[in-house]
Specification:
- The protein is mainly β.
- Helices cover about 0% and strands about 50% of the residues.
- The chain is built from one helix and 33 strands.
- The strands form eight sheets. Strands 29, 30, 31, 32 and 33 form a five-stranded antiparallel beta sheet that branches.
- Strand 2 (about 40) and strand 3 form a beta hairpin.
- The chain starts with about 25 loop residues before the first strand and ends with a strand.
- Keywords: Signal.
- This is T9SS type A sorting domain-containing protein.
- InterPro entries: Secre_tail (IPR026444).
- It comes from Aequorivita vitellina.
C-alpha cells in the first residue's frame, strides 16, 4: 500500500541496524535511524522501496534509483515497480512510469490531459503480474483513477459516472482497481470504499450501506483472490468479493480509528490504529492470531522482540509481502521525514509455511470437492475458515488420513486449521 509522496529528492540514505533478534521462528526487526527512510512497499524476497531508493532486507542496504527515475511507490515479486519519471525536467513536471524487467518506461498522458496545466497521473500500485499500473488522475477539476496496461500501452482514466471525485490505490491481476468515490451528503462530501472492474462498473462496499462517519473510508489494497482491505466508519475491514463477505473488526486497545493498509495472498492484513492525536501504532490480523487485529509490537514482544523506538510504537504498517512474511512501514512523525522499519516474521504466522515444511500434507489444491489430508500424527480435528476469519466447518477426527468434503463451499480462499497432537497447522486452500 503505497499512497504518500513528496517532491524533494534526498541524498543517498545511510542506515543502521537498530534492533534485531532471533527466535525459533527467526524473526527479525530492523529500524532505520536516518530521516526520510520511510518504506512504501516490500516483496517476498525482502526487496523494498522507499520514496527514492531500493532496499535489500538481508544486507540492510539501500540502492539509489536509476538516473531516469525520480520516485517509486510500489513493487511486486518480479521487482518491477511503479513510480515517476520526468516529463519536463526544466518545468519540474512528472509523469507516471514503471520499471519492467529493469527498464523504465513512461506512461505519459491521455489526449485530453494537459500536463502544463496541472493535469497529473499519480502512480500508487502495480499488479503482481506486472500487467497493470494504477493511481489517481485528473483532467482539470475532474479526479478519478487511472489504469495502464503495460502490454497494450493503453492509458484509461476512470471517472465516476456521477461526476464525483475518486481515486485508485491498488490493482490486482484481474484488473480490479480499488480506492474510494465521493458521494454528496448533508455536510459536504463523504468518501465511500469502492472498486472498479474491467467492465467499467463502480461497486461500493458494503453493498447498500454508506458510511455514517467522516474518515478515510477507502479500500487500500486487494490481493489476487479478490480479497480487499481498508477502513469503514473508522474501523478496519476485510471484504471477500468471491463470497461477497464484508467483515468489520474492532479497533485494538480502544483506539478511536484504525484501518488496514495491505493484505497478503494468504490473508495477513496490516495497517495502523490511531492511539493518540496524530500518533499511530501498527496492527496485524490473521485468523491464526485470533479473531481481532492485534498491535504488531505486542506480537513481536510475545516472541522476544523489543520495539526500541523513541515512543515505543511502530507507527504505520503500510505493506505486507504477498507471502505474509515481511511487513514494512514508518515510525511516527511527519511522513516525508519519518524513519522506516521492516519486520521479517518467517513462519511465525501459521499458514505461511510451504507445504514441504508441514507435518500435514494435502491435495488437490485447488480443490473442487474433496480435500485429502495426511498427517504424521493422528488428526484430532479440522476446522475451515474463510479468509476473513469466519468458521464454516468443524469436524472431529482420530485418524492420520481423512477426506474433507468442501463441495458445499463457495469458490474462494479458505484457511484449514488442522489440530494434531496438541499442535496446529494452517493450510491455505483454494476452492474452485
Amino acid at each position: 500500500m503505497k499512497k504518500n509522496t513528496f517532491l524533494k529528492k534526498s541524498a543517498m540514505l545511510a542506515c543502521l541496524f537498530l534492533a534485531a533478534a532471533t527466535t525459533q521462528a527467526q524473526i527479525e526487526f530492523k529500524v532505520q535511524t536516518e530521516m526520510s527512510t520511510r518504506f512504501n512497499d516490500v516483496n517476498d524476497s525482502g526487496f523494498g522501496v522507499t520514496v527514492f531508493e531500493y532496499y535489500d532486507f538481508e544486507t540492510n542496504t539501500f540502492t539509489p534509483l536509476e538516473n531516469e527515475a525520480f520516485m517509486v511507490q510500489a513493487t511486486n515479486n518480479d521487482e518491477n515497480v511503479a513510480g515517476y519519471m520526468f516529463f519536463d525536467e526544466t518545468e519540474f513536471i512528472l509523469q507516471a512510469a514503471y520499471r519492467l524487467n529493469g527498464v523504465w518506461n513512461p506512461i505519459g498522458f491521455t489526449a485530453n490531459q494537459d500536463p502544463y496545466n496541472y493535469d497529473e497521473n499519480t502512480p500508487y500500485g502495480i499488479s503482481p503480474n506486472s500487467l497493470y499500473v494504477t493511481g489517481q488522475s485528473n483532467v482539470g477539476n475532474d479526479y478519478g483513477g487511472f489504469l495502464y496496461n503495460t502490454q497494450t500501452q493503453e492509458l484509461l482514466i476512470a471517472l465516476d459516472p456521477e461526476g464525483e471525485a475518486s481515486a485508485s490505490y491498488a490493482v490486482n491481476d484481474n484488473g480490479i482497481m480499488v480506492g474510494w468515490v465521493d458521494r454528496p451528503d448533508s455536510g459536504g462530501t463523504l468518501r465511500v470504499p469502492s472498486y472498479r472492474t474491467l467492465d467499467g462498473e463502480f461497486h461500493f462496499i458494503p453493498e447498500g450501506q454508506l458510511p455514517t462517519l467522516t474518515g478515510i473510508n477507502t479500500i487500500n489494497d486487494i490481493n489476487s483472490a479478490d480479497v480487499m482491505v481498508g477502513d469503514f466508519d473508522l474501523q478496519p475491514f476485510i471484504y471477500d468479493r468471491t463470497t461477497n463477505t464484508f467483515t468489520s473488526y474492532d479497533n485494538p486497545g480502544g483506539a478511536d480509528y484504525a484501518g488496514f493498509a495491505s493484505i497478503s495472498e494468504n490473508g495477513v492484513a496490516v495497517g495502523f490504529a490511531e492511539v493518540d492525536f496524530q500518533t499511530r501504532d501498527a496492527i496485524i490480523y490473521h485468523p491464526s492470531l485470533g479473531s481481532q487485529p492485534l498491535f504488531l509490537k505486542d506480537v513481536l514482544a510475545d516472541n522476544g522482540i523489543a520495539v526500541n523506538t523513541p515512543d515505543g510504537l511502530l507507527g504505520t504498517a503500510i505493506s505486507v509481502s504477498p507471502n505474509g512474511k515481511y511487513i514494512t512501514g514508518w515510525l511516527n512523525g511527519p511522513p516525508p521525514f519519518a524513519e522506516g522499519w521492516t519486520v521479517y516474521l518467517d513462519d511465525l504466522i501459521l499458514g505461511t509455511n510451504e507445504v514441504s515444511q508441514n507435518t500435514v500434507s494435502f491435495y488437490p489444491n485447488p480443490v473442487e470437492n474433496v480435500l485429502h489430508l495426511n498427517s504424521i500424527e493422528a488428526i484430532d480435528s479440522v476446522a475451515v475458515y474463510t479468509i476473513t476469519g469466519q468458521k464454516v466447518s468443524n469436524v472431529t477426527i482420530n485418524e492420520n488420513r481423512t477426506e474433507l468434503n468442501l463441495s458445499n463451499l463457495a469458490s474462494g480462499v479458505y484457511l484449514v486449521k488442522v489440530l494434531s497432537n496438541g499442535s496446529v497447522e494452517n493450510l491455505k486452500v483454494v476452492k474452485q
